[in-house]
Amino acid sequence: MERFLYRLSTTPHRARFVLKGALMLHVWEAPLARATKDLDFLGRLDNSLENLERVVREVCAADAEPDGMVFDPATVKTERIKEDADYEGVRVRFVGLLGKARVTMQLDVGFGDVVTPGAMDITYPALLDFPAPALWGYPRETVIAEKFQAMVYLRTLNSRMKDFYDVWLLARQSAFDGSVLAKAIAATLANRETAIDVEPIAFTPEFTEQASTMAQWTAFRKKLPNTECPATLAEVVSFLTQFLLPIARACAAGESFEQHWPPGGPWTSGA
Predict the structure, then answer these.
(1) pLDDT exceeding 70 applies to what percent of the chain?
(2) pTM for this structure?
(3) Which terminus has fewer CB within 10 Å in the chain: N or C?
């Protein structure tokens, strides 16, 4: 994935893709980041299948310092996808070759989302001594805002255990300016036409203690690279309640949220 990102960073198409998803946790050097096999982007280009196919083929064919990887432009295929939260995107699949090994690559590209306070210049960590990809990436605030919107929107049908984990991880390991995070949450919910909910069902025992949810959390947790993650989703949600719901209440009331969150919390009025 990293070497495809590097090729993207050397082309004019770099400006048209904003990296999001689990790979951003690696950019932020989150030590407990979960593994992923996919590349997730916000696309800032024509979202037709034909255009995405053309662009990815050009990236695959881009000149790059030899790194052992070859991406085959002839294998690029595209299809429409609909995420859990009802937002259409494009999935791109193609093949990478590392010697005789075939690596199946997958890109998921979404469109139309707002990024608050704005996309960031990032350097994706490179292995060995290869040049590192320099790209646009999501800020933490929009990562959290989109995951909170999905929690509110999907209610008890939510199977996205990764969203709860990612927000838990970011809130434990990062500091936040409450006013910026509140603006990101308000902007994302408004853009996705989702009403602010100060008591989301996903934050109640009705969701966290239903049998299907507990089974999904247990299965998800077994795949994690660490043992620090709470054994139950209810414990995670208890922490997220302290982190997110004060902001939801302020947004619902049309009030500013001038608070500071140190890594691990809680919210305080001092910087």
Answers:
(1) 95
(2) 0.93
(3) C
